[in-house]
Amino acid sequence: MAYRKDLFCCSTMITAFANHGMAQDAISLFEEMQRTNIKPDEVAFLGVWTACNHGGLVQEGRRYFKQMLEEHRIQPSEKHYACIVDLLGRAGCLEEAYNLIRNMPILPGAVVWGALLAACRVHCNVQLAEIATDELFKIESDNSGNYVLLSNIYADSRRWDGVSRMRAMIRKNQVRKNRASSWIELGSVVHEFVTGDVLHLDSERIYSTLYLVSEEMKLLGFGRDSSKEEVLPYDAFWLSDECSYKILEDS
User: Fold this and answer.
1) What is the pLDDT of residues 213-243, one digit of tens each?
2) Which residues contact 222 (CB under 8 A, 6 or more apart)?
3) pLDDT of amino acid 3
4) Cβ atoms 190, 249 nearer than 8 A
5) Is 220 exposed, middle or buried (0-12, 13-18, 19+ CB in 10 A)?
6) CA dist list (Å): 60 to 30, 50, 66, 88, 152
7) 183 has which bridge partners?
8) 186-215 pLDDT per residue, tens
9) Which helix (H) or strand (E) holds 165?
């Protein structure tokens, strides 16, 4: 029995292609959908822009943005704008991304300014980074990531006065650094790990598995320059905790 493609089916597949880095497949399906008179909606456009983002397809992204506004008369949401800003920013079109934000018909939120700040970090643009963080400090003053990103941009530009100013602001505002963590889902249960984590119920087995794997890799000739940093027992330098836990569960 053959099933006819509909908007829901196409949008789902476009998003799936985009999330797995298959940009051309996502774009081909998006074009095919329109040729068969299936009108794309907000979800389909978000999916194809995500594909353009992953593939670095700036011209295509611009074209679809214009198509969304002029042909389909769809008003972009904040997520759409954030995706476009991210696409332009990654390609180094920072001024264009900033002008897009300035001309947004809706008030840009943290996700939009955050996309611009992340692009400024990649391309070391101090001026626009300061503009983005000024807005982010108004929206989410307790987000330590914004302070750290701007501090890193200052450091890359050798603006040590800026680095000192960011550290002073963190202390003054009593901003707490967000802990870095990773997680994995196994058997419908989400397991979270942080650096040096010993609170997990299976932490002893995890570190034992890491040690055995690291020893086996040493025998196979893999290693690292130990002169650069001190290596502690059971140090997880080849595999992350969540990866080793997956190995442990599969064994």
Assistant:
1) 888 888 887 765 554 444 333 344 334 444 5
2) 238
3) 52
4) no
5) exposed
6) 12, 11, 10, 11, 32
7) 192
8) 777 777 777 666 777 777 888 888 888 888
9) helix 160-172
Contact partners, residue 125, CB within 8 Å, separation at least 6 = 94, 119, 153
Cα 14 to Cα 29: distance, rounded to the nearest angstrom: 7
DSSP of 18-73, one letter per residue? HHTT-HHHHHHHHHHHHHTT----HHHHHHHHHHHHHHT-HHHHHHHHHHHHHTS-
How far is it, in rounded angstroms, from Cα 117 to Cα 50? 18
Q: Give the 3-state secondary structure of residue 84.
A: helix
pTM for this prediction: 0.69
Backbone angles phi, psi at 194, to 5 degrees: -125, 170
Contact by Cβ (8 Å): 61, 76: no
Question: pLDDT (tens digit, 9 = 90+) per residue, 144-188?
Answer: 889 999 999 999 999 999 999 999 998 888 887 766 677 777 777
pLDDT higher than 90, residue 111: yes
Q: State which amino acid sits at residue 104.
A: M
Using the structure block, give the residue that is written with the tokens 């829901």: 8
Can you tell me the distance from the alpha carbon of 78 to that of 83, in angstroms, rounded to the nearest whole number?
Answer: 9
Q: Which helix (H) or strand (E) holds 194?
A: strand 189-194
Paired tokens of 86: 């991210």
Convert 159-172 to b/e letters by CB count within 10 Å (16 or more is b): eeebbeebeebbee
